Input
Amino acid sequence: MSHAIADSMTMIGRSIRLGKRNVDTLIMSIVLPLLMMALFVYVFGGAIDTGTEYINYVVPGIILLCTGYGAASTAMSVTDDMTSGMIDRLRSMPIRGFAVLTGHVVASVARNALSTTIVVGAAVAMGFRPSASPLEWAAAAGLLLLYVLALSWLAAGLGAVAKSVESASALSFFMLFLPYLSSAFVPTHTMPSFLRGISEHEPITPVIETVRGLLTGVPIGDRGWIALAWSVGLLLASFVLATALYRRRVDD
Output
């Protein structure tokens, strides 16, 4: 266990250092959500009726969009390691295979924490007024952490099977697309019936509704437990899938 922890810490440090050098990815993970938030608040917000200030409605969705983009970039980082010869060098060393993926996932979480903090600060400057208590902020942060971990491990698995960085980017595209089919930007009852069924039963909607309820005081109902179940289930499944795909790729 001590060797596994040491291996993981080494790869975490490596991934964080690489992340600091990959400035364009970090900037885009911040700039893209900010641009999307400005677009929806200042351009579309006046025409969308959510029963409350639109910025208070849309910010939780923007946060999920932000985390999705940050997690998706993990797939490209893993694929770069798989195709650049880095993994071949590690195979000759007594290092645990899952430590490589752990390094990328933890770096993804750190990158997402930074970008999410900046996005929330910008939202407050734009007029976002959360009413959450410290305990509700902690609950929202914990749920987001589970969600980011789940997406990051899923992205790591996709990166392990992708043959190129470009294909890894294509495989992880759905992480950016799914929030648009949820309640992130408009209430689900305004959607066509066939799309409403998808939106109300996909995993992102209960996560968004729970975060929105915790931050703005909207009733959550049973969505909190559903969001928690989705996040934990996706995390476990993604971890098992990612480690299995990585071992299969390395052993080939």
Remarks:
- The two ends are 26 Å apart (CA to CA).
